[in-house]
Amino acid sequence: MSSPARHAPQRLILGSSSTYRRELLQRLRLPFECHSPSIDESPLPGEAPSDTARRLALAKARAVAVQQPGAVVIGSDQVAELDGQALGKPGSHERAVAQLRAMSGRQLQFHTAVAVLDAQGQCVGEALSTVRVRLRVLSEAEIEHYLRAEQPYDCAGSAKVEGLGITLLEAVESDDPTALIGLPLIATTTLLRRAGFALPGTGTTA
């Protein structure tokens, strides 16, 4: 008599090329793949930074789901905001200097969105975590020293809070300590349980 067929585990994909998001998702101890979405990440005219993050998180998940049908896909995006304007990744030392000068002694917001699509390509949910960050008043020497030491040119806001960037800050207000790094894991685990994943440490689904 043959044994009952077992359901194959769901395939999980992180729709991102970000090493920061990959390292965060690894904390959940779930097997997953990474596939980079190919989308235009430009904000739309008049679009609020938080809305840009939400739209792009879902767009990234959908773009990867089309390429990899039958998988559960996580899409995420982060947009930094200062005075209502989005701050992109600096990409160069000169632009990073300009960003940190503008941010010195100021409060800015980091909007990090996540969306999860199930194996049928349907969105099981979306979430947005907004982190408020206040920087110290920074001298030109401090800015230069930090940038030369860490070279955070691929980070919106020109600082890595998981590294030396924490020394630039006065305060962080957040409902999820991982959101500022690039993937809000509290919201992500909620959405993964909704998609049917049993997470290590709990063994249960929502």
TrEMBL record:
It comes from the Bacteria. Its cofactor is a divalent metal cation. GO terms for cellular component: cytoplasm. The keyword Cytoplasm applies. The active site is at residue 77. Its EC number is 3.6.1.-. One of its GO terms (biological process) is nucleotide metabolic process. Nucleoside triphosphate pyrophosphatase that hydrolyzes 7-methyl-GTP (m(7)GTP). May have a dual role in cell division arrest and in preventing the incorporation of modified nucleotides into cellular nucleic acids. Belongs to the Maf family. YceF subfamily. This is 7-methyl-GTP pyrophosphatase. It comes from Roseateles asaccharophilus.
